[in-house]
Design goal:
99 residues; mainly alpha
């Protein structure tokens, strides 16, 4: 049976209550109002490496680590492209100029 106050509430009031309930749930799950998780480079590398194991499925690895599969695919692509663009240094000798 519906609460009498919810029956007489305006649509705006119902939306406000629902929004508040969702905010509270998000606080419980994330431990605060932060909307996005911050992944360290080490965590990203570990998760990407896990997906490269023979027989590994990206979606399973992502689910096990609590990450969206699409984000893991992005990290994999970034790892591939960063490996291709490796900075290289050329040794240089500078000769002293006589004054």
């Amino acid at each position: 049976m519906a609460d009498e106050s919810s029956v007489t509430a305006t649509p705006e009031q119902r939306i406000d209550r629902a929004s508040e309930a969702i905010r509270r749930m998000a606080e419980e799950v994330l431990g605060g109002l932060e909307r996005r998780r911050r992944w360290s480079q080490g965590d990203k590398a570990r998760i990407v490496e896990e997906t490269l194991a023979p027989g590994a499925q990206v979606t399973e690895v992502a689910r096990r680590n609590g990450v969206a599969a699409g984000l893991v695919f992005i990290w994999r692509r970034q790892a591939r492209t960063s490996e291709q663009v490796v900075p290289s240094f050329t040794p240089v000798q500078i000769a002293a100029v006589a004054a």
